[in-house]
Amino acid sequence: MNDLSPERQERSANLKGMGCSRKRVEDARFTQGKGNYVDDIKLDGMLHGDFVRSPYAHARVVSINKDAALALPGVVAVLTAEDLAPLNLHWMPTLAGDKQMVLADGKVLFQGQEVAFVVASDRYVAADAVELVEVEYEELPVITDPFESLKSDVVLREDLAGQTEGAHGPRKHHNHIFTWEQGEEAATNQVIDNADIVAEESMYYHRTHPCPLETCGSVASMDKVNGKLTLWGTFQAPHVVRTVASLLSGIEEHNIRVISPDIGGGFGNKVGVYPGYVCSIVASIVTGVPVKWVEDRMENLMSTAFARDYHMTGKIAATKDGKITGLHCHVTADHGGFDACADPTKFPAGFMNICTGSYDIPTAYLAVDGVYTNKAPGGVSYRCSFRVTEAVYFIERMIEVLAIKLDMDAAELRRINFIKKEQFPYTAALGWEYDSGDYHTAWDKALKSVDYEGLRKEQAERVEAFKRGETRTLMGIGLSFFTEIVGAGPVKNCDILGMGMFDSCEIRIHPTGSAIARLGTISQGQGHATTFAQILASEIGISADSITIEEGDTDTAPYGLGTYGSRSTPVAGAATALAGRKIRAKAQMIAAYLLEVHDDDVEFDIDRFVVKGAPEKFKTMKEIAYAAYNQAIPGIEPGLEAVSYYDPPNMTYPFGAYVCVMDIDVDTGVPEIRRFYALDDCGTRINPMIIEGQVHGGLTEALAVALGQEIAYDELGNVKTGTLMDFFLPTAWEVPNYETDYTVTPSPHHPIGAKGVGESPHVGGVPCFSNAIQDAFRPFGNTHTNMPHDHWRIWQTANGLGLHD
Ligand code: PCD
Ligand SMILES: [Cu+]
């Protein structure tokens, strides 16, 4: 039955199952203005909240005078830490085991920190009242540099004074949060001391921000009559928010309903818990009416979860012919005023220990020091919440730096160090077990597709022409090969606030053969309603068009840990396939009964069960569904439903090979991206068109970060890039035409072999863009310059190398 006859081909195509570039079902709604976002929620008598925020990065709050604000018509309440303290809600736990002020308690630690929450009859009145709250501050010395912070006498976190133990072990200094070590320090140092060649580099992965189209917000509605709290919000993990809200407020969990409606982009920015959520809840409890809080763009950029801010120093050791023997990495991680990273509990620096990359490196050591400064907390977001972006940037830069030291081609250096296909499952020196990979095939395909040798020849000719004064542009060839680690995670080592990181799917087949499936994840634009229906279509033989996918309502969806870290496909996608298989197993029994044969004598065929050897005898899934509800079948319960909670045995390790070709104008510092080729291997592909969209989006965000985007601070801790006037968001103008490609190396442990893909293009894209810039200047002695490579910095690099003389 393995041939696909035209008839079977047609039945299969009708399902729109896995592998089909099914059009996104959510788009009709979104493109016609029918999306339902938090700010679209309007309830009777709803009040609006707005924050008084600190203009200072570090100051004592001497006094707060609410009188003028309260006197403004329409103002209902002004909440401060003093009001929240009796409820014990003036501080909240962070996802990283630290705690964070909900409203300034005696001092502020970053510019934009929440000081008071004004509640008023409308959003504009609330904003006017914010201006009328008089706060007296006493400025304190500001620290924006983590290295200075570790030397400073200034105690940033007075609440932790004298505490030598933090959530992740000993603290070395009053501004130190944790040290996290992985690997063998002594062995690594020994390898480095005895190596033929050692390349060293320090690099700064600057602070950025995902800047989703929709900012963060929530609507809280406390119904005091029946004791139920409903909370709508921009939550990437609605179930966890419900649990946290219950623990914080003391309201029993069944009396809290959390709903993530449509979300206008999350990108990790909406994983954490923000003071706005807590304040809207408290305000609704206090006033007895619904309260909405929606931040504006500046608030979003200044105060919500940023990304990166990692100072990384590496040493990489190799033999003369380029075989890598050891890797040493130290990170000073700037976490801002509170440690609010959303990493799994046991990983205070996320999965930074994937920093040996795609290479067979026998010995390695990583140490990360987390440090407090006067900047906004967070550090979790932007297409790899779990620091894989930093890790891949680090190793892909170290490879380039080593290639320079060895005077070797960087593509070849990668090739000779790749983990070989037959080495999988491969256990890396820093502990991870990579599930599957075929790096050489992907690399060869990529290099061939772009005519790598031809490009290098052209580049060398350009350098000669430049030296002869015939051109003022240089050519950069950016390479990157990345291995991602997504799908957290096995419950045994991954949890958030104690909740194991499984995920779930619940399916209900209706009598007429259509279905609804609910998952513990939540789409923020990824297209889950489209793709999860495709997984099910292939598993249960019902067309994807007849399956509704629902996520984000804790009253109806099974418990799950949410969507970030590209975990939906690896974890909830697996739960979906397995729940589908439970449906199929029951359907098989029903079919056998209807066909009057033994269970083992029927087999699944696309959309039906057929009697083995007699394909004309069959029952379609539609018929089986109907029978499940209208016939008494001996020994079988009525109905057709299944639920699956999936604890993945391992993470999935997607990978990819990227090449970027740039022409850089040495006199203006303007790079022109000529070509960008991206090969992604995410195992079994569910929807190729959605994957392509994910890759385009991730690459564009990579371009943004590599070429200009930054949350920059001045020495007083003022955010210099808090508006879209200064914060670079690429538009169609800057974005090149991406060429996408793929190989398929299925995950051996995932039920359908799929790995995540959403984060990959960002993780692999940033080093690729950066390497292209660096590579253009390699012939003139450049080894490394820090991102973001905006025109000014590129110009400076050229100038520093004497290219303007
Ligand atoms: N193999 C495969 C894989 C995958 N897929 C598809 O694709 C997507 C994606 O997926 P994934 O990878 O699994 O992921 P998810 O979990 O779903 O998601 C998440 C991600 O996602 C991305 N992408 C996106 N998109 C959009 N539109 N929006 C958004 O927001 C976003 N975000 C971002 C991020 S950042 Mo983090 O949070 O930082 O951690 S992480 C992240 C979906 O739909 C799915 O189904 C397919 O098809 N196939
Ligand atoms: Cu990640």
TrEMBL record:
InterPro entries for this protein: Ald_Oxase/Xan_DH_a/b, Ald_Oxase/Xan_DH_a/b_sf, Ald_Oxase/xanthine_DH-like, AldOxase/xan_DH_MoCoBD1, AldOxase/xan_DH_MoCoBD2, AldOxase/xan_DH_Mopterin-bd_sf, CO_Mo_DH_lsu
EC number: 1.2.5.3
GO molecular function list: anaerobic carbon-monoxide dehydrogenase activity; carbon-monoxide oxygenase activity; copper ion binding; iron ion binding; molybdenum ion binding
Keywords for this protein: Copper, Metal-binding, Molybdenum, Oxidoreductase
UniProt KW Metal-binding keyword: yes
Annotated ranges, domain Aldehyde oxidase/xanthine dehydrogenase a/b hammerhead: 32-141
Cofactors required: Mo-molybdopterin cytosine dinucleotide; Cu(+)
Superkingdom, taxonomy of origin: Bacteria
Catalytic activity: CO + a quinone + H2O = a quinol + CO2
Family annotation (Pfam families): Ald_Xan_dh_C, MoCoBD_1, MoCoBD_2
Assembly notes: Dimer of heterotrimers. Each heterotrimer consists of a large, a medium and a small subunit.
NCBIfam families assigned to the protein according to its UniProt record, in alphabetical order: CO_dehy_Mo_lg
Role played: Catalyzes the oxidation of carbon monoxide to carbon dioxide.
Protein name according to UniProt: Carbon monoxide dehydrogenase large chain
Species of provenance: Thalassovita gelatinovora
